[in-house]
Amino acid sequence: MIILKLLNMVIALAAAPLLLGIINRTKAVFAGRTGQPLLQLYYDIWKLLRKGAVYSRSTSWIFRVGPVIGLSVALIAAALIPFGGLPAVISFKGDLILFAYLFGLSRFFTVLMAMDTGSSFEGMGASREVTFSTLSEPALLIGLAAIAKYTGYISLSQMFSSLNLSVWLNAGPAFVLVGFAILIVFLTENSRIPIDDPNTHLELTMIHEVMILDHSGPDLAMILYGAAIKMWLLGAILIGIVVPVHSGNALFDISAAMLFMILLAIVIGVIESSMARLKLLHVPQLLIGATTLSILALVLILR
Amino acid sequence: MSLFLWGLVIIFVGGLASLINGRRAGLASFFGAAGAVAGSITAVIPAFKVFLHGVTESFRLNWNIPFGSFFVQIDAISAVFLIPIFGLSAIAAVYGAEYLLAYREKKNLGAPWFFYNLLLIGMALVVVARNGLLFLVAWEIMSLSSFFLVTFEYERQTVRQAGLIYLIAMHIGTAFLVVFFILLGHHAGSLDFDKISGVPSSLANVLFMLAIVGFGTKAGFMPLHVWLPYAHPAAPSHVSAVMSGVMIKTGIYGLVRALTILGFPPAWWCWVLILIGAVSGVLGVLFALAQHDLKRLLAYHSVENIGIITIGLGVGLLGINMNSPILAVLGFAGGLFHVINHAVFKGLLFLGAGAVLHSCKTGHIDLLGGIIKRMPWTAFTFLIGSIAICGLPPLNGFVSEFLIYLGVFKNGMGGGLEAVIPALIVIGALALIGGLALACFTKAFGVIFLGHPRSDYAQQAHEVGPGMKFSMVTLAALCLLLGIFSPLVIKSAENVILEITLLTFPDVQAELASASTVLWNFVFVSLILFGIIGVFTVLRKLLLSGRCVRQTVTWDCGYAQPGPKMQYTATSFAQPLTDLFKLFLRTRKDISHPKGVFPVQSAFHTDTSDISEKYMYEPAYKWISLLLSKLRWFQHGRLQIYVLYIALTLGILLIWKMM
């Protein structure tokens, strides 16, 4: 059992950077380009790990410990998330709260790293980051509360392993709402369109990318890898809720989950290719909307 | 018990010795602080004993006042409050000994130390008093001594105004408490707490509302909190730490004590508490976000944390009402643990703010910046405090919020609508508070300690001395230890919970045991997290060693002359959120736009005044003063006439008595 649990974590850590490759390839196909290799992020991380670093004179030790804390949090969070029917390495009652708050910790340091440079662009990105994450947190927690209410469990592993595809017959509407809410949280937390544009060419319009503008070398590698893991984990939550395939055969379940992760990446690519970024002023409305969807889902499940 | 009373005596003697030696600053500080520390250590021993073993200690003396008796008792509830009171006050006293020396030229240091020690005695007596009259006397000692501490720098007009607001607010609160005790005494025929029982529900409802207003004024419930943002910034920083960390908790204590006296809670009490908690929590942190002054910002955060504590109490009370041990145990455990945690991290943050004030001579956030390099110790401890107050793992602030979450989650799974609605409110409120607190403290820490100095104030920053450093480091270590050892703390809370909830011992024990099992998991995760951080830190060092590591300017998009003024300010950092919640904040913005081809001057100023002060108290006081001005002829300022009034009143009372 413990090997299976560890397998779950190994998959997360190994396959996480692939998601971004698939998203970018999808976008390239839509734009009629060849696009970068699927494994580009692996190459980037590898390249960065072998480089030196450049630091701004205004920065302090906060700027240097930030990436370490961010990646460590991502790793430990990976131990809390179940995947494809496999339970998480560590699971206990209320682990979903710890999961949400751990990412709060890494956000705390990301924002401080940005403030440490004294750059107005990075301050701007930091300000937007805290604004949007403030609003996305209630949506995530209430959405998970709805699932917890449906299953009767409050640990992520028990919750997800007790779901199966029949939820769509029993509580379809509620799951649609939670799915949407968590998709919006996914897009926000991973800085994707329509909330943030990772490929923008202007510092003024970025959120997450601008906060790490001054990082280089191994530090940047750690940040990129941490962000990839975070995307994988939130994706795992999303597909764990929306397409809970539990056949009893571990191998089949994992393969199905992997397939759905790839599908999710393609969907994100399609969203990014077909939508423009929202005006920053409209993002809060979207996030409050997500919270409302979560509340509605909870009400529906209660009925 | 005698150890406890001896401790108070030591504290008093220390204060007195300091008062006598007021002209000699060094001696005054020594006696004051030494008395506070030695007395606290002595008096906290019985409190720890009671907390761990649950054996109540009491002491009773007759007192020659109608209904009064010197009846004091330490039970587990008192102990939970006594431990942070003595702990934080002793640590803050060490800090104050150094902090106050900066005033040695201008001020007599005897008075502040005398009142500091008196405040400590007042707080301790409030928590152990078991007689209504004694309680009120102790309450008044606490309020008055803290008033004299708030007005320490009375030569400044703003401080005098703050003191006045504080004095009035405290006495409005006390007025409600006087009525509370009169009604209670009238029912029971005695003011000794152990003689009061069987309060009828109609009376209990009235008493509950009186307690909410009376104790809520002290604790700082919205909208009774108006004194906090004035009094905390005005007081010397170690006093602000004590006032915010433990003194306002006596309001929470009073409420808890009142709840144990008033009997079985109807559902609406629980809802009132949960809603007050949610409103105070969310609005407290929102107003904090809009502040420019560090200590004022921290004062609003006290409102927020009192909100979280009150949510915990409300959830616990709901557990009693719904007969759900899960909710009762986890709600009260979370709320009371947050009382201790808040004392630690808020004490730490106020001491940190004091250190910044001490060395930079300003608390205006937008004038500071980059002082992490000049004040590394202060910066590090302030960072720990910030992480703790945001409720982030692995520190203590997370644990208390986690327990409340766990309670409503667990209970919500089993129950129907009546269990899910509170869960929804509590989860929503705590999640929103958490996010906003993160925004607020990244703003405070980021703008004050990181980046470039924004003014000459920040340029002159220098690290504080050993006494102040010691206090801050101790509190920072406590933030971590209370997080890591939280399972043990929670497990030993059974006596307190038993006293409040009247559940059976096995129920409480089972719930606490399961909560502490969950917390061991959290501790396990935290320890692994520290391990991974350690490994990666080493790995990063190894990777960078021997490679080219350069220093340069921050990326400036090719702009030739970036300056510190171009940094993002605290105001602009908070602006998206303050705009989003402008319905509540009503921030006033004064803009003078740059004009012409070569603009000379432009300015932008924001001011967020308190809504409840502006739209509730100001109009109310205007009416009251208008009404009372009609009675001015009554007051002549002549002593003889006042004596006549007294004689007349006594005469009328005598006649009334005869009839």
Explain how this protein is built:
The complex is a heterodimer of chains A (303) and B (659). With 303 residues, chain A is mainly α. Chain A has one domain (2-302). Chain A has eleven helices and one strand; from the N terminus they run ααβααααααααα. In chain A, helix 1 packs across helix 9, helix 2 packs antiparallel against helix 9 and helix 4 (95-116) runs antiparallel to helix 5. The longest helix of chain A is centred in the middle third of the chain and has 32 residues, at 120-151. Chain A is globular. Chain B is mainly alpha-helical and 659 residues long. Chain B folds into three domains: 1-176 and 230-251, no CATH class; 268-540, no CATH class; 611-658, no CATH class. Chain B has helices at 2-20, 25-53, 76-99, 110-128, 132-150, 157-188, 201-219, 228-234, 237-247, 249-262, 267-289, 294-322, 325-360, 376-389, 396-414, 417-449, 456-459, 466-484, 486-491, 494-501, 505-544, 570-580, 582-585, 611-629, 639-658; strands at residues 57-62, 69-74, 549-552, 588-592, 603-607. In chain B, helix 15 (396-414) packs antiparallel against helix 16 (417-449). Chains A and B meet through strand 1, helix 3, helix 4, helix 5 and helix 9 of A and helix 14, helix 15, helix 16, helix 21 and strand 3 of B.
Briefly characterize the structure:
Chain A is an all-alpha fold and about 300 residues long.
Q: How much is the radius of gyration of chain B in Å?
A: 26 Å
Q: Proportion of β residues of chain A?
A: under 5%
Elements of chain A, N to C (H/E)? HHEHHHHHHHHH
Mean pLDDT metric of chain B: 90
User: What does the radius of gyration of chain A come to?
Assistant: 19 Å
> For this entry, what is the oligomeric state of its chains?
heterodimer
Q: Summarize the main sheet of chain B.
A: 2 strands, antiparallel
Give the number of helices of chain A: 11
End-to-end separation of chain A: 37 Å
Q: Can you count the helices of chain B?
A: 25
Number of strands of chain B: 5
Q: How would you state the average pLDDT of chain A, rounded?
A: 91
Shape of chain B: globular
Largest interface: A-B, 83 and 83 residues
How does the helix and strand content of chain B classify structurally? mainly alpha
What is the N-to-C order of secondary-structure elements of chain B (H for helix, E for strand)?
A: HHEEHHHHHHHHHHHHHHHHHHHEHHEEHH
Structural class of chain A: mainly alpha
Helix content of chain A: over 70%
Strand order of the largest sheet of chain B: 1-2
- Spans where pLDDT lies below 50 across 5 or more residues of chain B: none
Taking pLDDT < 50 over at least 5 consecutive residues as the criterion, the unreliable ranges of chain A are none
